[in-house]
Every structure is written in structure tokens, then in C-alpha cells.
Amino acid sequence: MEFARFGATTWFDPVEVSHDPADLERGRWAVIVTFEGELTAIRFRHEEEGGPAPGDAAGWPAVSGWTRSLDEEGFLAGVEEIRTRIAAGSVYQVNLTTMLQAPLPAHAHLPDLAARLATGNPAPFAGTVHVPSAGIDLVTASPERYLTRSGARLLSSPIKGTAPTIEQMLAKDVAENVMIVDLVRNDLQRVSDPGSVIVERLASPESHPGLVHLVSDVAGRLREGARWEDLLAASFPPGSVSGAPKSSALQSIADLEPVPRGPYCGAIGWIDADHPDGPRGELAVGIRTFFAMTDPDGVRRLRFGTGAGITWSSDPKGEWAECELKTRVLMGLASGRVGP
């Protein structure tokens, strides 16, 4: 069965697939936007509230044979190159990532991994989109809100700052959060009523499995006539997984990361243009996200990314340790080393 599930709502029986953001102004869609900007929106015939999510945690096989697009040496070199660019004044912060991948056993079913993550790593923006016919097969345990829209109200909640405990958070983490909040404010101001963009929460600690994040809330009021297409154009990719200034950070990412990120660090969620109380939508940042892809040689692989925000004060080995911290629980669950 092909389906999408967010929260307690399951949509099944897909009837339309679109790659045109203009279509988001009608109907209800499951939405995936890759970091590179490719939109896939899927509309379903049926909707079900409540009930168990499809998938069986016990059915997920242990996945092994992981490789990285950037190993530790390559990542540390990337951090130093970013620091060189910061010293030259071309950028202030860059989110540097590495992509992990492993061959999938023939019987691996990603909804089973979703069930395993739901018990071992519950997340506020967890979701599953299992529509292989549209080229989408992913499960996310994202802790981060990219955009929530309730009528004209917009809310973005960037995460910057990660540590095992709040006592181990560094001054660099707070500075990093403030920089990205300023970037998100600028993004939302491009499509919001003048004076409506405010910071409702700044660098607030949030506990998640195995770590603590600093999270901020930036809100605005969408100006009359602005569409989803305008909102995405103004704010994508999410600032917390790109950097500041965004254009320079994206150039650094293109220079230093050897493979595309795909849905990782993109947007994952749902959009409902026909809600009786006005347009609604909730899109997560596609972090803590596993997705399946088939290589040109026919091998089906599971992919997963991890990264860290690099600033002038970054310690390269410390940033690598942050990447490892972010993957520990999730990779353990996917690889069978950690029980749900």
C-alpha cells in the first residue's frame, strides 16, 4: 500500500503527482522538496484519522555496510576551508554535511523503519511518505519546523546549537542560532506584511533523544496575495541547513560536498489549500531522515545525512563529534545496534 502519514493522519491511494508549485493552491498534498529544489507533491484519494501507522518495527532488517560521501579527513578539511572563506569575508556560517549510504536488503520496507523510529526516537515532525511509484520512499524523525502556515500566520523554528547536555552548550552555539534567526527573519520579511515578523522565542533549549538543541521561533503574517510558490521561493532552502549569507553558503556547499543531499535538508510535510479555516500546512526540515534510492546499477540503497554548522570559532574535530552525536541513536536503530 502506498501512503503518507504525518501525526495521526494517514493518506492513502495516491491519485495525482505534481512537480509544479502552483498546484499547491488547490487540494491537500504530501510534499517533499529536495535540498536542490525539486518539488514532489502527492495527492491522495482517501484520508484516515487515528489508528496505528502502517509498518512493523520487528520487520525491519539490520542494515550494514555504510559508507560516507565525506569521511572524517574530508570533513575536517571542509571545515578548515570554510574557516578560510570566513576569514576572507565571503561567508559567516556554512552547514557542512556528509551523506551516508548502505545497500538495502531485498525485503526491507521503510514503513517498518518508521515504526522502529517512532518508539526509539520519537520526534515532533515525524512522517512517512511511501509512494515508490512517484520515486518517493522516505521516513523522517525530524525535530525541526521549517514552516507552519495557519491561514496568514507563518512560523519557522530554526535549530542551531547541539550538545549532549545543556551544560555542554558553547557560546558558539548561541551565536550560531542568532545568526540563523536573523537570516530567517529576512527570508520571511520578503513575503510578510511590513512589521509583522517577530522573534517569539530565542535560543531555547529543547531535549531530544540523546542530545539537546537550541531552538528559536520566528513568526510573520503572510501578505495578501502571496502564494505557497512565493513563500518557498523566499525561504528555501531552510536557513539552518544552508548558512549565512545564504547565497554564499550555498556556493560553499556546492564546492565542498561531493554528492547531492536529496530530501535530506529539504522540506517534508503536508499542505492543505482547502481547509475551511484557510490554507494550512506544516513542513519540517528534512534532517534525521532516511530515504531509499536505486542506483543506476540497480542497487537499492538507504541514505541518511548528518552535518554541523561551521563558524570561525568551530573546532573541526568538535564539529565531527557533533555529526556523530546526531547520528548515534538513529543509525543504531536502522543498523540493529539499538533496540526500539
Give a description of the structure.
- The structure is a single chain.
- This protein has 340 residues and is of the alpha+beta class.
- The chain has a single domain, classed as Anthranilate synthase (4-Layer Sandwich).
- It contains 6 helices and 18 strands.
- The chain has helices spanning 72-87, 110-120, 171-189, 228-235, 246-256, 316-335; strands at 3-6, 9-18, 28-33, 39-49, 67-68, 93-103, 125-131, 136-142, 145-150, 153-157, 159-163, 198-208, 211-221, 243-244, 267-272, 280-285, 289-294, 300-310.
- Strand 12 and strand 13 (211-221) form a beta hairpin.
- Helix 1 crosses helix 6 and helix 2 (110-120) crosses helix 6 (316-335).
- The protein is globular, with a radius of gyration of 19 Å.
- The protein starts with a strand and ends in a 5-residue tail after the last helix.
- The mean pLDDT is 96.
Topology of this protein?
Elements: E1 3-6, E2 9-18, E3 28-33, E4 39-49, E5 67-68, H1 72-87, E6 93-103, H2 110-120, E7 125-131, E8 136-142, E9 145-150, E10 153-157, E11 159-163, H3 171-189, E12 198-208, E13 211-221, H4 228-235, E14 243-244, H5 246-256, E15 267-272, E16 280-285, E17 289-294, E18 300-310, H6 316-335
Antiparallel strand pairs: 1-2, 1-7, 2-4, 3-4, 3-15, 5-6, 6-14, 6-18, 7-8, 8-17, 9-10, 9-16, 10-13, 11-13, 12-13, 15-16, 17-18
**DSSP, total strands:** 18
Low-confidence stretches: none
Q: What percentage of residues falls in helices of 4 or more residues?
A: 25-40%
Domain tally: 1
Average pLDDT for all residues: 96
**Proper CATH architecture:** 4-Layer Sandwich
Structural class computed from helices and strand pairing = alpha+beta
What is the string of SSEs from the N terminus onward?
EEEEEHEHEEEEEHEEHEHEEEEH
What is the CATH first-level class name? Alpha Beta
What characteristic shape results from the CA principal axes? globular
Q: What is the CATH topology descriptor?
A: Anthranilate synthase
Gyration radius, in Å? 19 Å
CA-CA gap between termini: 24 Å
Given the structure, what is the number of helices?
Answer: 6
Major sheet description: 18 strands, antiparallel
The oligomerization state is single chain
* Percent of residues in beta strands: 35-45%
CATH level 4 superfamily: Anthranilate synthase
